[in-house]
Amino acid sequence: MHAYRSHTCGALRLADQGANVRVSGWIHRKRDHGGLLFVDLRDHYGLTQLVAHPGAPGFESLERLRAESVVRIDGEVVARTPDTINPNLPTGQIEVRVSAVEILSEAAELPLPVFGEPDYPEDIRLAHRYLDLRRETLHRNIVLRSKVIDSIRRRMIEQGFNEFQTPILTASSPEGARDFLVPSRIHPGKFYALPQAPQQFKQLLMVAGFDRYFQIAPCFRDEDLRADRSLEFYQLDVEMSFVTQEDVFAAIEPVMHGVFTEFGGGKSVTPYPFPRIPYREAISKYGTDKPDLRNPLVMQNVSEPFRGGGFGLFARMLENQANAVWAIPAPGGGSRAFCDRMNSWAQSEGQPGLGYIFWREGEGAEGGAAGPIARNLGEERTEALRLQLGLNVGDAAFFVGGDPKGFYKFAGSARTKVATELSLVDHDRFDFCWIVDFPMYEMNEETNLVDFSHNPFSMPQGELEALNTRDPLDVLAYQYDIVCNGYELCSGAIRNHRPDIMLRAFEIAGWSAEDVEKEFAGMFNAFRYGAPPHGGLAPGIDRIVMLLAGQQAIREVIAFPLNQQGQDLMMNAPSNVRDAQLKELSIRVTPPFKV
Predict the structure, then answer these.
(1) Contact yes or no for 472/440 (Cβ under 8 A)
(2) Per residue in 400-418, pLDDT tens?
(3) How many angstroms separate the CA atoms of 536 and 213, rounded?
(4) Contacting residues for 33 by C-beta, under 8 A, at least 6 apart
(5) 109-151: pLDDT as tens digits
């Protein structure tokens, strides 16, 4: 017999009754039933119940061992009695009657329990991640991650993509987030950078003629952390040659749809082609470029019923042509209590309040439209609002006014809050869409100068003519995002593959030709020697798995994540290094600058 096991802890069935077997694993939990000792033994594959009788070999050892000790068990497979069968376990019809026990590793007192998975402080969970990973939910998430990556890789190869690896040590790039820098010992005073993404390398692969590339690529960005973002992450990096935007969509949609159908637990998945929503339309309808389409609420511009009307606050706002009034419909929210609750929420968000109208049943003063706005606006304009929004008795509408650039994010949050409070969001779906037609440029609020709004290497719609003849803020780019359930899964673009367009695009953003050629020398020079039209995108692996696992934070689908301060509490990183190491690198550490 094998030194440690003849079967895994998830393998035994009723058909194995009478067999002498050997299993090894962790003691998951123990139960003493009138002298009989029942032990759940756990390994990567499942649980097997052991039963030990007083006086039997190994009984005393099992009785004294702590949970999470590792043991090897010999015994006979026996059928459970009908009243003790566990239908929730694949091994629930049998148990192993223990005949021998060998202690392989005895566990000390645990800093956090594994069985039952009670809530525990995150710092303890991360400091002892090897224990946390034994918990069923987290263990299952990490296995799911492996299977998702395998499925993605298989689907990409079936579509004719080749997997190539790109460098980890590369040059610092001035665009995007902050780089993680790596000092060079061989070249004192100079630094490598860890890649924020393989952006330039994958484009160079297209210039080199490889046509269809993908990679499960590690990326590193020194930026502030949040629940769906980490300093290091993985993405499905994709690039294709001789393609239009629609070609890229057609290649990636079956992969996304297939993976979410395969691992989505029966939830419906948007059929492809996925809806295409222009950026400005997404902002005006949903208040975000990451709309959750499971939320059925669509905002509308309702400026006209308020223009010159009796509700003075909005009427005065609308005298400025840049301002508007948007409405958030609230079907089923037609009560003063709900409207007051939303108004209080808005104040908790730092807003002066949230205007509203609600429609209620009744005659005379008790019926029809209610609320301060309705009283001041008048019956005719209020009815026009109701008809425009498609609302009825028992419904409500909330209003936000001013310059949409200043309030659209709050309006989007209000839309989400209304739908959540009224239970309008369908949680049994994965709703995909593309956000397209991003502006090429935006006004930098700090410098009041034109800057890139998204990816500087994107092809502007209209190409060189658009850059030369249009207001930069009106130029759109062939840039696109995939959004699912309110999460941005990826960004992508059709690339700018012509040096003349690239120089002009950067010139508008304040770059000189010399700066472009210096900072992006590798890619710029390559474009001079014949570059194909190409484009790609990079869905985030961590966010994909997070959605499929039903989690709210990517650290629940990463084996060894950092905490919110960017620290690895288990390995004590980042850490100080020895003076000798710094000397080798020609580096001296100075105290942080005081701001």
Answers:
(1) yes
(2) 999 999 999 999 999 999 9
(3) 9
(4) none
(5) 999 999 999 999 999 999 999 999 999 999 999 999 999 999 9
